[in-house]
Amino acid sequence: MTRGFEIVTEDKRKHPQAEIILPQRGSKFSIAYDLYSPVDVVIKPMEKQLIWTDVKAYFQPNEALLINVRSSMGKQPVVIANSQGWVESDYYSNPDNDGNLGINLFNLGTTDYVIKTGDRIGQCMFINYLIADNGNTEAKRIGGFGSTNK
After folding, report:
1. pLDDT tens-digit map of 70-116
2. Which residues, in sequence order, are bridge partners of residue 7?
């Protein structure tokens, strides 16, 4: 297995009754995969909402998964609350949440931002990364979402 997407285990799903859509590219030359909401959500102006996708990603140790909003979401505008999601390969199948990808959206607009089940709520892209000669660590991930060096 090189890289791809799976549904998280039943015991770690946040929306066990939802039909999950695995991430897909929108066209042959798309660089990112669309992420889909498994639930209906309304985000009030100047508020944020964490949406769990019930999807996990597997990929190589020298790769990362970057999560961003879709360009069309700028019309509202809606952003990722921490500006960009960074997912390391050891997030996959972690004991806290099995690698469940969450997107924390913040509504900067003046009206409600309405998300329906099956709407595209973000994009994710696999990238290779480089490691410096110094400043490295052998520390292991001990948890899930936002857990590195907690």
Report:
1. 888 878 899 999 889 999 999 999 999 999 999 999 999 999 999 99
2. 55
Report the amino acid identity of residue 40: D
Which whole-number Å values give the CA distances from 119 to 66, 90, 131, in the listed order?
Answer: 19, 28, 36
Whole-angstrom Cα distance, residue 120 to residue 35? 5
Q: What is the pTM of this model?
A: 0.88
Short-list 18, 90, 24, CA closest to 53? 18
Tell me the pLDDT tens digit for each residue of 3-32: 999 999 999 999 999 999 999 999 999 999
Token pair belonging to 29: 């030359």
- Whether residue 77 is preceded by a cis peptide bond, meaning omega within 30 degrees of 0, is yes
DSSP codes joined into one string, the chain: --SEEEEPPGGG-S-TTSPPPPPB-SSTT-SSEEEE-SS-EEE-TT-EEEEE-SEEEE--TTEEEEEE--GGGGGTTEEETTSSEEEEGGGTT-TTTTT--EEEEEE-SSS-EEE-TT-EEEEEEEEE----SSS-------SSTT-TT-
